[in-house]
């Protein structure tokens, strides 16, 4: 089932999310709905707070970044991350123009480290530790921020934040033309 994506201004997007266990109610349904919702919105990542769930769950599929590439320089990752913890961020910081399904029609250059090491559980609640770099690391960092109540706009300079304040206010009031279902703060 395609779920509405929570818009900027909703309190859940600022919440530090809670760990979950294998007996979390309707986990398989939530996970399936998140995949369907992300693909319907043409996203490459989706975190549980974006569907109004305060749990440490996010998923990514980096396939769209590499669809037009003749030679894939990075590994395509399609993965759910449960109870994730970034253990290390290293390498050069680099800027990339990021967007967010909860903040439609707004993209900004965000600087992030190039390599991460993350500990997480997969959809079967099996524990993993993995290192990612490049665009995959960036997508993971963006979604990981969501489960910690952080948005990409928080990483902008004070000047950029002032410049986009009006647009963010419009989004929080539902004045946006998203191509997918959204849920706005009341």
What topology does this entry show?
Layout: E1 5-6, H1 27-40, E2 45-47, E3 57-61, H2 63-66, E4 78-100, E5 103-121, E6 127-133, H3 134-147, H4 158-172, E7 182-183
Parallel strand pairs: 1-7
Antiparallel strand pairs: 2-3, 3-4, 4-5, 5-6
Plain-language structure description:
This protein is of the alpha+beta class. It has one domain: Alpha-Beta Complex (Peptide Deformylase). The protein contains four helices and seven strands. The chain has helices at residues 27-40, 63-66, 134-147, 158-172; strands at residues 5-6, 45-47, 57-61, 78-100, 103-121, 127-133, 182-183. The strands form two sheets. It has a five-stranded antiparallel sheet, sandwiched between helices. A two-stranded parallel sheet has the order 1-7. Strand 5 and strand 6 (127-133) form a beta hairpin. The chain is globular. The protein starts with a strand and ends with a strand. The model has no long low-confidence stretch (mean pLDDT 94).
Supply the number of helical segments: 4
Q: What letter string, H or E per element, gives the SSE order? A: EHEEHEEEHHE
Which strands sit side by side, in order, in the main sheet?
Answer: 2-3-4-5-6
Tell me the total number of β-strands: 7
Number of domains: 1
Strand portion:
25-35%
CATH topology: Peptide Deformylase
Helix content: 25-40%
Structural class: alpha+beta
Q: Which runs of at least 5 residues are low in confidence (pLDDT < 50)?
A: none
Name the CATH homologous superfamily.
Peptide deformylase
Shape: globular
């Amino acid at each position: 089932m395609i779920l509405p994506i929570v818009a900027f201004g909703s309190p859940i997007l600022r919440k530090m999310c809670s760990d979950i266990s294998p007996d979390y109610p309707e986990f398989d349904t939530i996970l399936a709905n998140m995949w369907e919702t992300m693909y319907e919105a043409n996203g490459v990542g989706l975190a549980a707070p974006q569907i109004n769930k305060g749990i440490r769950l996010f998923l990514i599929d980096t396939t769209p970044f590499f669809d037009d590439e003749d030679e894939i320089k990075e590994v395509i990752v399609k993965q759910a991350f449960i109870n994730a913890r970034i253990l290390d961020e290293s390498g050069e910081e680099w800027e990339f123009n990021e967007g967010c399904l909860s903040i439609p029609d707004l993209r900004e250059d965000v600087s992030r480290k190039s390599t991460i090491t993350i500990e997480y559980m997969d959809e079967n609640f099996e524990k993993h530790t993995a290192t990612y770099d490049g665009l995959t690391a960036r997508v993971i960092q963006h979604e990981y921020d969501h489960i910690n109540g952080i948005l990409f706009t928080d990483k902008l300079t004070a000047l950029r934040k002032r410049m986009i304040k009006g647009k963010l206010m419009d989004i929080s009031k539902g004045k946006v033309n998203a191509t997918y279902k959204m849920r706005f703060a009341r």
